[in-house]
Design goal:
acyltransferase; alpha/beta; transferase; seven-stranded mixed β-sheet; 8 helices; 1-acylglycerol-3-phosphate O-acyltransferase activity; globular
């Protein structure tokens, strides 16, 4: 009986703490919008220097948020292969099981660019961070690809979720080809990152308040760099993109199955 009461109290706390965390996330976005980024924008420096500052602010903000969720008992996490990240000219390709994947990744990568949905440019809590961190819109696909390639070739780090949205549990990965195009055109470092979450939470099929019976465990497994030579040699380029995209789909489908109960 006492055990059931403790479990119930723990569940109620985690439900409250989850709502509190997202409230803090919203408040933090508002503070960045109204205070932090306006100050950064008037500091002297080139466009690139200002973007770098913005990305670091987002990094530390997300690091705080993940730390908060961990400290108040919502989640646990582990990272395997962190030393393989944070390299210049690195394209990080990841799967997308939960709502907080991009937050988790950026919290461990100090200087990273990413692709943002066009609709988020109109979100008052996100717009300021997007603009000041120099994130790239997916509104114009050709422009998006060109900007991503240029960023990587200039030595920047890029995070891409080729699924474009959160994964659907039980179904194979389905990737859009943009990541494959960017990878082959830039011809820089390509590193796969597999994210897994158990028990299932914050997925596309679940609302934020549909929390699991215990703390969820988010794991990040950084794979070995993917050699691009054999794909780049394929002609025409459209076939190379198709084959590389299929390679990525197969890789992440296998990795997702491998880690689906990780942390159980």
């Amino acid at each position: 009986m006492a055990q059931k009461i403790i479990q119930k109290l723990s569940y109620c706390w985690r439900l409250f703490a989850t709502g509190f965390s997202f409230f803090i996330f919203g408040v933090g976005g508002l503070i960045l919008w109204l205070v932090v980024f306006p100050i950064l924008s008037i500091l002297p420096g080139t466009r690139l220097q200002k973007v770098n500052r913005g990305q670091r602010v987002v990094h530390y903000s997300f690091y705080f948020f993940i730390g908060l969720m961990h400290k108040i008992g919502i989640m646990t996490y582990e990272i395997n292969g962190l030393e393989k990240l944070n390299r210049p000219g690195q394209l990080i390709i990841a799967n997308h099981p939960t709502l907080i994947d991009v937050v988790f990744l950026i919290s461990w990568i100090k200087q990273a660019n990413c692709i943002v949905k066009e609709s988020l440019w109109h979100n008052p809590f996100m717009r300021s961070a997007i603009l000041n961190a120099g994130y790239i819109s997916n509104g114009d696909p050709e422009k998006m690809i060109a900007e991503c390639v240029a960023w990587l070739q200039s030595g920047g780090t890029m995070i891409i979720f080729p699924e474009g949205t959160r994964s659907v549990s039980g179904k194979p990965c389905h990737f859009q080809r943009g990541a494959a195009v960017i990878a082959l055109q830039a011809n820089k470092i390509v590193t796969p990152v597999t994210l897994s979450c158990y028990p299932s939470t914050l997925t596309k099929a679940e609302h934020w308040y549909q929390i699991p019976e215990r703390r969820f465990h988010l794991a990040m497994h950084v794979g070995e760099d993917i050699a691009l030579d054999k794909f780049i040699r394929i002609q025409p380029a459209s076939i190379a993109v198709r084959r590389f995209n299929q390679y990525l789909q197969d890789y992440f489908t296998q990795q997702r199955e491998r880690y689906k109960h990780y942390g159980k």
